[in-house]
Design brief:
heterodimer; A: 204 residues; alpha/beta; 8-stranded mixed β-sheet; 6 helices; 30% strand; globular; B: 261 residues; 8-stranded parallel barrel; two-stranded antiparallel sheet; 10 helices; 14 strands
Chain lengths: 204, 261
């Protein structure tokens, strides 16, 4: 069972549809009660950092989420802004992050991006996994994923990075520390590559 | 390496899909939900839907249909047509659309771009400009399916939109629409050198070679087409088609291990 955290930000249904095709049950959590039996969590996110953080803080689920993730060690994966929220802070906003992985969210330096189009980093890009991480198990070498963002996740512990992508610089497009996972791209919109990754998360 | 995007662009009219020529004579080409299913299988980079009735008939976006499209889609979706307020935009995002294309509403009130970008993030706010050549040279923006002239210069306006917080601009050539004789390369050059946000070009593709021509010159760019991906052959039989990953890599000059040649 995968629990999708619905705090009014991000597309819950796209994830639900992927798991429906994979025949893996999902549940949508809108309240702290809904989270009580969570075994695996997905934290989606789109839009601006502060908007997403304030929505989550005001959802009534923040406290139990911290408990599930930090104490009960329930596996959780943050997607796009959901990943960025797991950091300490972001260049994009003023609010504190969840601090589930020691990191800062920084804005891409436009001067390092060679092509005419600078930001956002938008479209399909390569994702190169580190050390055959199980999240990427079985994925083709030429797997590509869909990105849409202007800020990136900078780990304070380099070993937390589990995949890299290039956009002006090489940045962490996927991270993992203990039970906490984050991916910058959108697996729910990345065809069979994304489906495979979400399947892998369910099997962890 | 970040790839260029090849984007089928589909027109919604009377709950069906149509294709126009020079923004006129819509021809029925199929059912939108079915089209999403087929494009899922073809692993399309991105899919764009434009409701060509909403603005002209002054209607609300068809939220029921939008939700069905978003739920079916395994690729990023862009929706345009009849979006005039922040609330409408937010509702469409909540249905699972990644990008909203604004058009006529922005021509009359460009601050709407900033208002929507503040709420949902610049990266999701797109402006689509319908552009026609002027008789004595230069270009002009039109609205209402190419029927209303605005007197606005698209090159200057694109720059203004970037400053206001637009995340992407789609330029749609009315003169080239459905003609399948190639893009207006001069127009693309002019807009491309003006802005640094992502640009997508639409109108005129008759073959993958037309797409390749734009990518060769502009690199990372969005290249969209309606006719090319819904018609096949000289008699324009309706048949949804799209290049394979291998064909796309050839166009992008990427070898099969994912590196540039």
């Amino acid at each position: 069972m995968i629990t999708l955290i619905d705090y009014g930000v991000g597309n819950i249904f796209a994830f639900q549809n992927v798991y429906k095709r994979l025949d893996i049950p999902t549940k949508i959590a809108k309240t702290s009660q809904d989270l009580a039996d969570a075994q695996k969590l997905i934290l989606p996110g789109v839009g601006s950092f502060d908007f997403a953080m304030s929505q989550l803080n005001g959802s009534g689920m923040r406290e139990i989420l911290d408990e599930l993730v930090n104490e009960k060690k329930v596996p959780v994966i943050g997607i796009c802004v959901g990943m960025q929220m797991m950091g300490n802070r972001s260049d994009e906003g003023k609010l504190e992050g969840l601090k589930w992985i020691d990191s800062e969210i920084l804005k891409f330096d436009e001067n390092l991006i060679q092509q005419r189009t600078k930001l956002p980093h938008m479209g399909w890009n390569d994702v190169i996994p580190v050390n055959n991480h199980p999240l990427f198990r079985g994925l083709e070498k030429d797997a590509i994923f869909y990105f849409l963002h202007s800020f990136y996740f900078k780990c304070n512990n380099p070993t937390d990075s589990i995949a890299f992508s290039e956009y002006g610089i090489s940045f962490s497009s996927a991270v993992n520390r203990d039970n906490v996972y984050g991916i910058q791209f959108h697996p729910e919109k990345s065809h069979h590559y994304g489906e495979k990754l979400l399947h892998n998360f369910a099997n962890l | 390496m970040l790839r260029p995007r090849i984007i089928p662009s589909l027109l919604l009219h009377d709950k069906g899909l149509v294709k126009t020529v020079n923004f006129k004579s819509p021809k029925y080409v199929g059912d939108p939900i079915n089209a999403v299913r087929i494009f899922n299988e073809k692993e399309v980079d991105e899919l764009a839907f434009f409701d060509i009735d909403a603005t002209v008939l002054n209607k609300e976006p068809d939220y029921v249909l939008i939700e069905k499209l978003a739920n079916q889609s395994r690729m990023p979706l862009c929706y345009g047509g009849g979006v005039k307020t922040v609330e409408q935009a937010q509702k469409i995002f909540s249905l699972g659309i990644e990008k909203i294309a604004l058009s006529s509403a922005v021509i009359h009130n460009s601050k709407l771009v900033t208002q929507i970008a503040d709420r949902v993030g610049s990266q999701s706010v797109i402006v689509v400009l319908d552009i026609k050549k002027k008789l004595l040279g230069g270009y002009e923006i039109y609205t209402h399916n190419g029927k209303k002239s605005t007197g606005i210069n698209p090159i200057k306006f694109a720059k203004e939109l970037e400053a206001l917080g637009a995340g992407e601009i789609i330029i749609n050539s009315i003169d080239q629409d459905g003609v399948m004789k190639g893009y207006d390369l001069n127009l693309i050059d002019k807009i491309a050198e003006t802005i640094s946000i992502p640009l997508t070009v639409l109108g005129g593709a008759g073959s993958l070679a037309d797409i390749e021509k734009v990518i060769e010159k502009h690199g990372v760019i969005g290249v969209a087409s309606g006719s090319l991906f819904v018609f096949k052959g000289p008699y324009k039989a309706v048949l949804i088609n799209y290049p394979t990953q291998i064909e796309k890599n050839k166009i992008f000059k990427i070898n099969n291990s994912g590196n540039t040649e």
